[in-house]
Amino acid sequence: MFDKLILKLGDNQFYNAIKITFTAIVAFFIFYSSADFTAAFTVTLGALLCAPIDISSNFKHKIIGLLLVSVLIPIISFLLTFTYAYFLVFTVIFCVFVFLSAFISLFGHRANLLSFTLLLTISLSFIHHDEPEKVLTNCLYLLFGGLFYTLISIIFYLIKPNRYINLEVAECIETTGEYLELRSQLWIKDADREKIQRQMLEKQIRINELHENIREYLVYNKARTLNSNNNRKLLVALSSLLEILELAMTNTFNHKEFIAFFKDDDSIVAEYKTLAHNFSVTLKSLAFHIKTNKKHHSTGNLANDFKKLKLRINEYLRSHNISVYNENALNVNNLLFYADKQIEKIKGLERVYKERVNADELRGKYRDLEKFFTPEHYRLKTFTDHLNFRSATFRYALRITVTMLIGLLVGNIFNFENAYWILLTIVVIMRPGYGLTKQRSTQRVIGTLIGGVLGIVALILIDSNIILTVLAIFSMLFGYWLSATDYKIGVTFVTFYVILIYGLLTNNAETQLVYRILDTVIGALLAYLTTRFVWPTWELNSMNIYLENSLKAIKLYIIEVKYYYIKKGEPTTSYKLARKNAFIEVGNLMASFQRMIQEPKRKQLNRVELYELTVLSQTLISSAASIGTYIQFHKTTEASKAFKLVMDYINNNLSQALHNLDFDAEITSDTEEDYKISMSELKAIRKQEVEKLDIDDALKIQKLEESQLIIDQLIWMSNLSEKIEKTTLKMK
């Protein structure tokens, strides 16, 4: 429990919350005056509005982003406040600003954060519309607040420039450990394997994101890669993490068969599960020591545990008179090979953080790194291509424009006090998809109610302004910290500190709470209704695109596996890229499915088939990757013509699946009969080849292992591709 608290206090969200809170407090007290505290609030607001854009990445991009938003905030505020008296002109400018701010989110993560910041700015721009004579002064205060936050952010960065990326790597190590922990649970006899597989897919999505963040950092810091010890560590660590995940994903086992095989001594399976669990424990321990900046010491001895397990398994085989050529014995050898290799990779990752990394270890690791990173391109063509109703971003931009305009009119017509809270609620809650908007609407209303009630209770029971101020500061810190991980709790703390501040500065905090709750409910209701009925974007449409992309990516990867088996040697860049894209596209498909099941039932067409296709796609690329991994770590025989024909058959099934879904795909004239003949030939050829070879038993076993693994995977992949084709036929 204590370790978890230490980890939570050391994460990037807490660090950013401290930075935001510190900036707000310092800015407020510098400009606070008992006569007029408007300046203090405005400067603080300018600083807080800049915070969302402050993501840790390339230092140059960080500064450019913060300076840009620092300038845009006062410009937008000036134009909207200045034109507020001319309502028609104001409405046009307001709608244009909202639409463009929402629309730029299509340019990627950084642009999405800028979009959110600008929408917040628009919502708060005309708070002081009744004081037009102060508009220029207030805008200068906003500008100063933004520049002040930029300065504080630079100082925090210079104090610990590597903190962000080291924590990203630590989180990646920890999440990979959680993935391996889920794999270990598959060895439980009565495990809910379908549920575990679902959870593993969710972890993969997050791990892929973290890999991309680390790549981005390394690409943008290319000039310092060879002369920075930290960057050398990052480079080798990323390579090790990719290999650990790849080994895990590409070595799939029939757990029920293994459990049945060791039925006479089920403690062997339990011992292997413990070893697999200790993979996770070791990685989590390493992540903990990186986050707490402590020297890492191994929690156990994986190599010794593996040796003991291997001796027990060999003894079991001997005592049961099981031949080393037996099919089950070969499968056990492949299981042991995986465990041995995984231990090697985990120990290699540990060594990165125990010693300095030599430049020799970088050889070839940086090569082509940029090709694996997906840069964000801000092209005008991207903008114009999405100016149509086929684009989900275009519909979202129109929808939020209409919603905020309605919210503005409701606030004006009914003369709500602080009606801008309606707009703030819409901005924070509203998302392109229905499911997330609905979820956040509920969470925000609940969080506002709880936080508001707690705030009023605190004001009634506590007489000391000092205690209330301390509570407000800590509530602000916790609000910004927890909003990213638990939105409802984050909103609770934010509302709590807002009510405390009103209570400290005015005598009508109870009235403000009523208005805040009312405005929140109205904003949440508007966001929910318009997302549901105004140019809605249903995930089913997007999922079809993700399904097409994933099937095409798998096809390309299977082609690369086929050529890799033929050519041998080190994996080529095209092979690695195809593998990465296949896993990412299937991850996108899974994420899309999760969003779809949050939508109304009538919008979940072919839900069963889509889930089945997601799982089948994930299993298929894992099987294909297991062949690639085996080739990488073993000296394999020459690929036969039958092998090529079977791989072509698998790809042809995927092409037929795409064709069933009305997507473009080239279908060859290969028949199922060709496949059956090829598979029979493959089995016969492999058996005859091995039996005729004049080699020692150890080498013969190795070749039988290859034969067993390759043929089993080909049969499995063929069955999976057939299921994919049949499942898509149901959806036709």
Automatic annotation (TrEMBL):
Residues covered by the Integral membrane protein YccS N-terminal domain: 69-316
Entry keyword Hydrolase: no
KW Flavoprotein (keyword) present: no
One Pfam family cited in the UniProt record for this chain: FUSC-like
Subcellular localization, as worded in the UniProt entry: Cell membrane
Domain Integral membrane bound transporter: residue ranges: 408-528
Keywords, comma-separated and alphabetical: Cell membrane, Membrane, Transmembrane, Transmembrane helix
Taxonomic superkingdom: Bacteria
InterPro entries referenced in this protein's UniProt entry, alphabetically: Memb_transporter_dom, YccS_N
Principal location listed in the UniProt entry: membrane
TM ranges: 20-51, 63-80, 86-104, 111-128, 140-159, 396-414, 449-481, 487-505, 517-535
Record-stated family: Belongs to the YccS/YhfK family.
Annotated protein name in UniProt: Uncharacterized protein
